[in-house]
Design brief:
mainly alpha
Length: about 230
């Protein structure tokens, strides 16, 4: 947090502004973020099991275990509902970036889903996940915690930087209205008003947000090629 300009020079001013905002009276987003960093692994003692080797331990579902612990802790501290929600989400989702980084590349759809699910809290989650991944390694005298470190850590850092770039350059800027509205979808597919129209609008919005379609013509082609008898994912 003290060296955002060194790690993310292009986005440091925006990140500093983001973390300076207040969450509730007397608590800044930066303060709540630090609190979440300290307690994000609170579920590990309860989830610890021994692996096949005597000196190897596993912590399956420690993120879900920690979510309940931290929600209880937040209520004891009388945090607001908003602060509780942020603390809960950061705890439950703190392994998400590591999971995304296991693939060959973070797809446009995965980027959209990440911030569609998390919103601005996704920025907090990114920095928590990067610090968490870097923290597995012995601290270095260098400001750069990934230099000369493992390939896995480098992939997590690369995925984090790519998501950060996507948020500020593609996701965050205000987009114009949807390329098609519900009435236009019903007319194009000869449908009556039903929950299916809402699901088609959702699929269209996701395709727009991930950059798969960029014009009205592409939107029409997209919805006409959806098999309405199969689940829309």
């Amino acid at each position: 947090m003290a060296h955002l300009g060194d790690f993310f020079p292009a986005f440091a001013p925006s990140l500093e502004q983001h973390f300076a905002l207040g969450i509730e009276e007397g608590i800044s987003r930066k303060a709540l973020f630090k609190f979440a960093c300290f307690f994000h692994d609170s579920g590990k003692p309860h989830a610890r099991t021994q692996g096949p080797k005597a000196n190897v331990f596993r912590f399956l579902d420690h993120d879900q275990e920690g979510q309940g612990i931290n929600e209880h802790l937040g209520r004891r501290l009388k945090l607001s509902r908003r602060s509780l929600r942020i603390l809960s989400e950061l705890t439950r989702q703190h392994m998400r970036l590591a999971s995304l980084a296991k693939g060959a590349a973070v797809t446009p759809r995965a980027k959209y889903r990440f911030f569609c699910d998390m919103g601005k809290v996704g920025l907090d989650l990114l920095l928590l996940s990067l610090a968490n991944a870097a923290g597995y390694r012995k601290a270095s005298a260098s400001l750069d915690p990934v230099r000369a470190h493992s390939r896995d850590l480098a992939k997590i850092m690369e995925a984090g930087w790519e998501l950060l770039r996507y948020y500020y350059e593609d996701f965050s800027p205000k987009l114009p209205g949807p390329l098609l509205n519900g009435k236009e979808i019903m007319k194009a597919l000869h449908l009556r008003q039903s929950p299916l129209v809402g699901r088609l609008l959702g699929a269209l919005k996701e395709a727009e947000g991930s950059g798969r379609i960029r014009s009205r013509e592409e939107a029409l082609e997209f919805i006409k090629n959806i098999d309405i008898f199969k689940p829309i994912i």
